[in-house]
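Quick question, first post here. What does this chain look like in 3D?
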Amino acid sequence: QVQLVESGGGLVQAGGSLRLSCAASGRTFSSYAMGWFRQAPGKEREFVVAISRSGVTTYYADSVKGRFTISRDNAKNTVYLQMNSLKPEDTAVYYCAADESLLTLSRGSYGVDYWGKGTLVTVSS
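> Answer (accepted):
Ran it through. Tokens below.
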């Protein structure tokens, strides 16, 4: 059982930066691969990035490569998403996710075990 709580969303101008955090409950955080998804108005939820249990392996959607960086601190039961060079098309509700399988996270939202409630990121032009 994993409970996830996102924070750090807000309003930022295009070209700016924002850092999201996802705090996980329990004592088994290090047993889960973690990821971030996002859902823009009128669109399907899409994969953004995922990170392995150890933090060594990461997968990024092509749309965010070079701009977003995922990291995790297993001692703090927290995963982060550093977002730089933000664009208006990055506007979405961002969801933290956890699953035992890194492949499940990287392949899409179907079958993912745990979700946070989301945090809104709005990028203005």
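Residues 102-107 form the longest helix (6 residues).
The chain has a mean pLDDT of 95.
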